[in-house]
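note to self: dont lose this again. the chain is below, predicted strucutre after it. 117 aa total, dont forget to put it in the shared folder this time
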Amino acid sequence: MNTLKSENERYGFYGTMSLDGCADAAWEIAMTLIAEDTGADPEEARAFLDSRWGRHFADSVHCFLHRYPLKEAIEAAIEEWNSWKLSRRTRRELGIPVPMRYLAGMVYTAAIYAEAV
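---
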């Protein structure tokens, strides 16, 4: 996979992971694993990681870093996000189709928002 650089290094996933001192390594791993898990292309994965949802995803990774090495922490965050359910309201408000999982839905939404801006 072609790993794209962040366009939002002060916020989003990259900015949050820089607080842990592992932004570059985390970015590379997260781009790859999120694209594999969701079927997103590199631009869509970057849009998600650069978004506010990417920042929240980094918060999940940060919590798992207390128990796991970086790659496993990102895998655990992906698993956690995929275990969450999208409510009918969230699906309607964000236009996320059924039966899309939570993480894929947020990637989908971030990509649409990035394209619209």
